Amino acid sequence: MAGNSEPLSPRAKLAVTAGKAAAAVSRAAGKGSGSVIGGKIALRFDPDLLARLARHLDVVLVSATNGKTTTTRLIAEALRAGGPVVSNALGANMPAGITSALAGGSDARFGVIEVDEKYLAGVARDVAPKAIALLNLSRDQLDRAAETRMLAEKWREGLAGVEAIVVANADDPLIVWAASSSPTVVWVAAGQEWKDDAWSCPSCGGVLQRPSDDWFCAECGFRRPTPTWALSGDHVIDPYGAAWPIHLQLPGRANKSNAAVSAAVAASFGVEPKVALERMYKVQAVAGRYDVVSYQGRDLRLLLAKNPAGWLETFSLIDGPPAPVLLSVNARGADGTDTSWLWDVDYTRLAGHPILVIGDRKLDLAVRLEVAGLQFMVCAGLEEAVRSAPPGRIESIANYTAFQDLRRKVGN
Description:
About 35% of the residues lie in helices and about 15% in strands. The protein contains 14 helices and 17 strands. The strands form three sheets. The chain has a nine-stranded mixed sheet, sandwiched between helices. Strands 12-13-17-14-15-16 form a six-stranded mixed sheet, with helices on both faces. A two-stranded antiparallel ribbon has the order 7-8. The chain is globular. The relative contact order is 0.10.
């Protein structure tokens, strides 16, 4: 029964100890948190360790292309109203990182776990979740991730036999297709700003019709399900029609969407929307995202945008012109080495902003901005960019490893 921790077997205990030792060595060597290497070592000792560590927990899995880490934090905060929570809050979201996180949660009642899209079905089989939150699917890391339609199909197949409450975004056709194989689905009208990956029907390949907020396929009848929860402006509407105010310290429409899904998940664990949403206000920043830091006498707001859908949402929450904007793009292993996605981002939304460009792939980005007809300055690094920026808080938007580079530079 979840909440009653059973003692681990000697082998499992050895695996946990070995993993923690490996993680400590990694941290001491300055190689990061050590969670991934610790989890890999632990799983080598006991390949079934993830399932064993999750046995006593009521588990929520969170997966999406964008918003996983933030939504995981919001759900974790909401569920703390009902008991202790263990979570991979730093975003190590593959089996090794998840195993490492759960190894520290022997006293927890709930496990709130962010899962990389490729690993969702496998992790779900291992941890027998009580709930799964599915937010969105869009193109990302084209050199390592499956095409979105294929990924939705894998989720659909992989989740068909999983007995969990699936809380899913009714406004994303790919998410609806993936979730529809599940026996119990709670549909949330969470919105979908980026639609460029969801114009064809996932069921038959026909063209989706999109009158206002609705969507449907005229050829096969696949259509938007009727939601029982909804994001409406600054409120979450629950299944009884009650409107609960969203008060977040996190900016932007996307985070209100994340809060709506989080409230629906929390309700499935018996946490009232009022309590859940009030607790979410405590979240100020998520692994450095949205932090405002001081560097060389200037304020920088750190914003993460990893793919076209993420950049679109980020552009909607930055200060208006003439606020300076710093853009940084890398193409390392963790980012995906293919930068063709830059051409899918509508950078014309930055018109009127002074733009500073840094990062490993600053020249790729410069070509894209040139074609978009924008004024910008390519800089050698962060120091030059900050020195060159006109007055005002600098909105600093970076993809994954470029964001980590920024955090290290500013001591965040």
